[in-house]
Design brief:
Blueprint lengths: L1 E6 L3 H12 L4 E7 L2 H10 L4 E4 L8 H10 L5 E6 L3 H10 L4 E4 L4 H12 L7 H11 L13 H11 L4 H8 L3 H15 L4 H10 L6
Parallel strand pairs: 1-2, 1-3, 3-4, 4-5
Helix pairs in contact: 2-3, 4-6, 7-9, 7-10, 8-9
Length: about 210
Amino acid sequence: MIRVLVVDDHAIVRQGLIKILEDEHGIEVGGEAVNGIEALNCLRIGHFDVVLLDISMPERNGFDTMKLILERGNGTKILILSSYPEEQFAVRMMKAGASGYMTKDAAPDVLVEAIHKIVSGKKHISPELAEMLLDDCTLDSSKPFHERLSNREYQVLRLLGSGKKVSEVAKVLSISVKTVSTYRGFILEKMKLKNNADITYYVIENGLMER
């Protein structure tokens, strides 16, 4: 029996996923969590073969949560199920250790197939994501770190580096605070930085300050 932990901060989404999986032979939903902190608590007291993990969540985002789950080294597979299109986060999540990436508009049978696939040791990716991963492998490694960011990540980088708070960045870009925090996590990982002070130093040194 494949034990699954469903992690998403939207109750409707969680219940919908549970409903899809509870009728599937060989799959058991062993728990649910609304954020990364709850997810890690569930994993401390029980074993799960697969974690269905959202990216943008309060308390601790999906990217940070995934890293902590993988650091446990107990073989738990991570299937990212996100509302973000693949071109925004999929390559980064796969390179960071996810076993699969799906958008939330995928068909239920694709979700079930993906769970079985990653438990068998394979990766679940779409043909489009496979092409993006291939393109990413051929990127010029001599490029400055900020040139490897997506357009939105670059915007967040410049705003944070110019001294704006996460809430202020969210207001400027008309996106949620959760989404800004998620972008910040990807920026730190991709640019090998540790905190906002590092971001500020990088932005100043490279002349990227918002004017």
